[in-house]
């Protein structure tokens, strides 16, 4: 169960080798999260993440999970929920793609959409159903500031996150009143492996800051979390910007 | 969560039989501060439909009533007959079933123990569908009193009552300048009063740390009343103010506002006053006068923290009060009391010693960690926190606080092997 401050006792991370996810898990374990399931493609990095969490006192284990293999989601995730209540699901998988070349390579662009949107849609629906059945729990979805308005620079990634974001909001509304809830997390530029080598955007942040914001969001039962908080205003302004100007922005 | 409202023993048994896969828990008037009467995804029985006071024996002072009867209703029925409930907490809006299962205490615990001490027998619906009559001195009774509804559904109870001549209280009020002064006054004088409690200012620092206002008293005898009141000495007409407005912003209760309130409350209290006549509701249940008072905490609400440590571990109490004062927690409803000997319930909260209860706005940053630190001080001192008020305890800490937890789990495993009774509290703490 989540305690009075929204901290879960059990956590399922989809995309267990994500740096942001690991930072969040670390922070929650420091509070009182005891069971952590790290679901992701088997890799040394995933095992290392589990080992690190075990070192912090959690009962952490890894589960083989492929976001793109949507046919397997229902059975695989269903089994995890059958073992006992899961208080929080962190949907953290996602790929950035290659903003420079995806425009010319539809095949790799489709991969971005399959992971970030289709995979999340499938896993999100399965988890949403399970949370509805158990009558409590939070599904935290790592969306992105890029979901606000697809920008010229990375509209393939942006559009996939926009789809994910819209889906997560809708799922949150569908679950309203069932005891389960959805929290959409929209970080800006986060310094991780995924973004290494890219030029930093203004208001860039790091995984630990995202983790702190997620903890705060859990405590306040937030539906939307911006990291940093000021991005909410930037997003509002960006939405209003006339198209000819927006197009010229080099973001 | 599915809410069912049975109106009889038979309907309750049927509701338990028809429960879903996630079990069932009984609920009274929903005044527990935590998740004791919640059951996510499962069934919850609203017991307020079982609301009959079946009989009152005015000669021997006993009442037989359904579990869903509120203490408010009991007072309405009993006071005109010259009897009073044996134990009343800070609100009348609790049911008899809830009072038994949380083994509630009142300002008279140092003299007369908790609620369960005054229960002659219980009707308990257990997981097998049977209705058992449970009497004190048995394992099932001790597991049920304080057992948070997890041994079965309490359907009704026979209570021993307290004779009173009037519905007024004679109250002595005095101020204590700091925590040591307060503890000395409580230790020295409690045996002279049936009811005793102290409001404590947790925002005061330095030499004023722990300053307090003590209010102690007893039911007023008939001859203490002025002639005018003697015509109807047992009148019970508690008034209420308008309820708190629905949408109050967060952060109304901050250090500044609460500090100001505490300062005024302390200054307003007389240095010493004896024999003041107060209405029963003003003495016992001041918050019942403001319906929905909890709304003043805004959307993010508040958490209650109540713990007890033994008399010999007053150092732990001092430490916690010091930690609270240093952290400047904006808490204006903090109460210190001396408990008498422990009640027999396995998970019953009271034990001989000092208990401190306080409210803290839940939105306060870092509060979760801070309360964990308090837990450690309390557990190390052999103390415990109150399950009826808990929404955040770590399961690891629980076993240290409740040494009979193993017995409780064993009895539950034997009595309810399929987990018919379940609550969020039980899930969170593994009860």
Please, could you describe this protein's structure?
The complex is a heterodimer of chains A (251) and B (431). Chain A is α/β, with parallel strands linked by helices and 251 residues long. Chain A has one domain: 3-Layer(aba) Sandwich (Rossmann fold), CATH 3.40.50.720. In chain A, 45% of the residues lie in helices and 16% in strands. Chain A contains 8 helices and 7 strands. Chain A has a 7-stranded parallel sheet, with helices on both faces. In chain A, strand 2, helix 2 (44-55) and strand 3 (59-64) form a beta-alpha-beta unit. Chain B folds into 2 domains: 2-164 and 402-429, Uridine Diphospho-n-acetylenolpyruvylglucosamine Reductase, domain 3; 168-392, Vanillyl-alcohol Oxidase, Chain A, domain 3, CATH 3.40.462. Chain B is 28% helix and 23% strand. In chain B, the strands form 4 sheets. An 8-stranded antiparallel sheet of chain B has the order 14-11-13-12-16-17-15-18. Chain B has a 5-stranded antiparallel sheet with strand order 4-5-9-7-8. Chain B has a 3-stranded parallel sheet with strand order 1-3-2, covered by helices on one side. In chain B, strand 4 (53-57) and strand 5 (62-66) form a beta hairpin. Chain B is globular, with a radius of gyration of 21 Å. The model of chain B has no long low-confidence stretch (mean pLDDT 94). Classes of the chains: A alpha/beta (251), B alpha+beta (431). Chain A binds chain B through residues 1, 3-5, 7, 9, 31-32, 85, 133-136, 179, 216, 219-221, and chain B through 1, 22, 34-35, 39-42, 300, 303, 362-363, 365, 367-369, 372, 391-392, 394-395, 424, 427-428. Chain A: GO terms for molecular function: oxidoreductase activity. Chain A: Keywords: Oxidoreductase. Chain A: Its EC number is 1.1.1.333. Chain A: This is Decaprenylphospho-beta-D-erythro-pentofuranosid-2-ulose 2-reductase.
